[in-house]
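Blinded run. Sample ID left blank on purpose so nobody reads anything into the name before looking at the predicted structure. Input follows.
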Amino acid sequence: MALDEGHHRLFVGTWTPSRMLVFDTETGREIASGDIAGPSDDLFYDWRRGRVYVLTAVGFLEVFQQRDPDHYDRIAHYPTPTHTQTGLFVPEWGSSSPPLNDKANRARKSLCMRPPDGANDECRDVRMLGPPSRPTTGLTRGQAIR
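Blinded prediction complete.
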């Protein structure tokens, strides 16, 4: 779930059927909804851009643009590795970072996805964080791959 406090909107991702729902927090009424590619554990509201980012288990990041508090259009459908339905959005970074699960080498990775802005293109940085058996607090080894 994510919250747009300014417009009193709550965003919820459902599993069956796979949809993004928008509720008015003052009335509890469903305002809008949109299909998403698959189940999601995380979605994020980017108040600076008026966008909702939805990570899905079937390998897509769905991006919805807020036309106004009652209307949302899907503007992007980016591929991601499967089973990346959880992640982290940091508005100050302007990016979403779903964790990647690399079963081949048992390493934990992070995928940084920055939304396009003006002349900047979307970028995806992959960084190694170390094996899952060792707790990590940040980037500990490896380098960005573009």
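Unblinding after everyone has recorded impressions. Confidence is low (pLDDT under 50) at residues 102-109, 118-146.
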